[in-house]
Amino acid sequence: QVQLLESGGGLVQPGGSLRLSCVFSGSVFSVNAMAWYRQGPGKERELVAAILNAGGTNYADSVKGRFTISRDNAKNTVFLQMNRLRPDDTAVYLCNAKYRENYSDVKAGRYFDVWGQGTQVTVSS
Predict the structure, then answer these.
(1) Which helix (H) or strand (E) holds 119?
(2) b/e per residue, 79-103, with b = 16+ CB within 10 A?
C-alpha cells in the first residue's frame, strides 16, 4: 500500500523556522515529482513548492527566497525548510507524490497521485 507520512509541523513565532518531512512508503517502480501544498483557513489549496527526481524545483512566488524544497531519492523523502515564517503561512501543509507502479505505466505515460494526511503549521506570536 502506497502512503505518505508527514512530520515537522507546529507552532512558531513570526520570523521563525520549521522543517517539514514527508516519507513515501510502498513498493513502486518509481517515485517522480514530489511537492508540498498548503490550505489556509478559508482558502483554496495552493502549490507551495515542487521538486522532480532529477532535482528541478518550482516555488510559489509568496515563498521564494524563504522556503527551500529538497529530497533524498534513496529514502523517497522530501523536505521543506521554511524560514522567515509569516502569519499568512499558517495552513495545513500537505505532501503530494506522483509515482509509477510498474513499467507499463512508463510506456503509457501514466502517473498516479498520493497525498499525505497533512501537518498543521501555525505562525503566531
Answers:
(1) strand 119-123
(2) bbebeebeeebbbbbbbbbbbbbee
Per-residue model confidence as pLDDT tens digits over 66-125: 999 999 999 999 999 999 999 999 999 999 999 999 999 999 999 999 999 999 999 999
The residue among 4, 1, 5, 21 whose CA lies nearest residue 97 is 4
Amino acid 52: pLDDT:
93
Instruction: Give the separation between CA 86 and CA 123, rounded to whole angstroms.
Output: 6
Instruction: Give the C-alpha distances (Å, rounded to integers) separating 99 from 6, 21, 82, 103, 105.
Output: 17, 18, 25, 11, 9
Residue owning grid cell 502549490? 47
